[in-house]
Design goal:
The structure holds 2 protein chains of 2 kinds.
Chain A lengths: L9 H26 L20 H6 L2 H17 L4 H28 L13 H19 L27 E9 L1 H19 L5 H16 L2 E7 L2 E6 L5 E5 L4 E7 L16 E3 L6 E6 L4 E5 L3 H24 L1
Helix pairs in contact in A: 1-3, 1-4, 3-4, 4-5, 6-7
Chain B lengths: L1 E4 L7 H15 L11 H8 L3 H13 L3 E2 L7 E2 L6 H20 L3 H13 L2
Antiparallel strand pairs in B: 2-3
Helix pairs in contact in B: 1-3, 1-4, 2-3
Classes of the chains: A alpha+beta, B mainly alpha.
Keywords (chain A): Membrane, Transmembrane, Transmembrane helix
Protein name (chain B): GntR family transcriptional regulator
InterPro entries (chain B): Tscrpt_reg_HTH_GntR, WH-like_DNA-bd_sf, WH_DNA-bd_sf
């Protein structure tokens, strides 16, 4: 039976991902049912002109479509990320942030109409409350997803044919490279332009513009990256992101190879089911075969040298470990 | 860029750092405009003194291979574009000296080079 790295905690992450869309339907339903007698005759929620305001039952039903759309999308992504606990945690975080904030928005709409006979302006504290709820829900989604199961440890030397830099016992080595991805910069600016358009359109729903803005800023801040390979492992740092870094220990690397090119679409610090890392354009790519199953990819002109160093380090560490075991 | 040092070597560590950068330029792995890894990063990764790495970088600056500016990354200069050819000339001169030392004829030396090139 093959190893399933995401088995531990997967049900919990699935529930956290799919519960918020359910909440988007349940919150308006429960509030309208509970306060039905004290609400105005029609759903005078924000944006609905008094003469076109729908009935409460129709208004509640209107939440079904976005909830199914959100829930379906999250479910498709979750299925695609079935084996990757890290990506599942990201989905749970995003779903909690969006689902809870939208549920809070509708909750505020209903509660401000309790005891009213006609339209009531949205209170000034509504948006700050929604933002706080989104941030709190995101944090809760991240924390409640639990600790990620550790990746399996690799113990075998790199396979024959892999490039290996022979490192004598006393030698110390470091490989360093940096990249600037113009493609990522352009994507980021496009997201930010969309956010600007959404905000300029006067939409009362801030979540859409915020999503575009956050995605844009995240893309721009990931455009400049640094790679470092030394005795401590493989480290990727994002200098524009406040020095945010992620280290891949050698125990999580099976072996390294240099690829002539790789597609960079969708990669990043979290990546997708195709892998993670930073591919800044056409050209050689360092590819680490990780024990978690996804590869790590990084564009660098001398990818062959980088791969040879990783394999050299792996050989040295694993030969030392093998000798210690034999003693 | 790969930097490898051997603390047990008689060659000073600063020279070893500089040699690694020269080798990367000669191989074409580093080209004009490329940034050298920050000296602090190199020093921490190799477990050597920051000033040792800076001395190595300063040697490269003195040769015109690297530009150093306060508060900014060290970058490879345009002079590096000629470096691979310069390495070839140096290798040819070493080869010529070996030919003379061994007393091999010019024709035989040229044939040896042709043979080596055709085997690649």
């Amino acid at each position: 039976m093959s190893h399933d790295p995401a088995r531990s905690g997967r049900t919990r992450r699935l529930v956290l991902t799919l519960a918020p869309p359910v909440l988007m339907v349940l919150v308006p339903l429960v509030l309208v049912a509970g306060f039905g007698g004290r609400l105005p005759a029609r759903a005078f929620v924000e944006g609905a002109s008094p003469q076109y305001a729908s009935t409460w039952s129709r208004w509640v039903g209107m939440h079904l479509y976005p909830a199914v759309l959100f829930g379906g999308s999250w479910a498709v992504f979750f299925h695609r990320y079935w084996n990757w606990p890290e990506l599942q945690r990201l989905l749970a975080t995003l779903s909690m942030a969006f689902g809870v904030s939208l549920a809070v928005t509708e909750g505020i709409h209903v509660l401000t109409l309790v005891g009213a006979h006609g339209p009531v302006p949205t209170p000034g504290w509504a948006v700050p409350a929604e933002v706080t709820a989104a941030a709190g829900a995101a944090l809760a989604g991240w924390r409640l997803s639990g600790p990620l199961p550790p990746p399996p440890e690799a113990g075998a030397a790199p396979p024959p044919g892999a490039p290996v830099l022979s490192l004598a016992p006393g030698l110390r080595a470091v490989y360093a490279a940096s990249t600037l991805s113009r493609r990522r910069l352009l994507y980021g600016l496009a997201w930010l332009a969309l956010a600007g358009l959404q905000a300029a359109g006067g939409s009362s729903v801030w979540q859409g513009a915020t999503f575009f803005a956050v995605a844009g800023v995240a893309e721009v801040l990931q455009a400049r990256t640094r790679l470092r390979i030394d005795a401590g492992g493989v480290e990727v740092a994002l200098p524009w992101f406040g020095g945010l870094r992620r280290i891949v220990p050698f125990t999580a690397v099976a072996y390294a190879e240099a690829l002539p090119a790789a597609s960079g679409r969708g990669l990043g610090l979290f990546g997708s089911s195709r892998g993670w890392g930073f591919v800044s354009g056409p050209g050689p790519v360092l590819a680490l075969k990780l024990t978690e199953g996804r590869p790590f990819l990084y564009s660098t002109r001398d990818a062959g040298t980088a791969a040879a160093l990783v394999n050299g380090m792996l050989s040295r560490i694993r030969e030392d470990a093998g000798r210690a075991d034999r003693r | 860029m790969l930097i490898v040092v051997d603390p047990s070597s008689a060659l000073p560590l600063a020279d070893q750092v500089a040699d690694c950068v020269r080798a990367a330029v000669a191989r074409g792995d580093a080209v004009p405009g490329d940034r050298l890894p920050p000296a602090r990063t190199v020093a921490a990764a190799l477990g050597i003194n920051l000033h040792t790495v800076l001395r190595g970088y300063q040697r490269l600056r003195d040769e015109g291979l690297v530009e150093l500016r306060r508060g900014r990354s060290a970058t490879i200069t345009d002079a590096a574009a000629d470096w691979p050819r310069r390495g070839l000339v140096e290798a040819a001169e070493e080869f010529a000296a070996a030919v003379r030392r061994l007393g091999v004829s010019d024709e035989e030396a040229v044939d040896t080079v042709r043979s080596a090139l055709s085997s690649r």
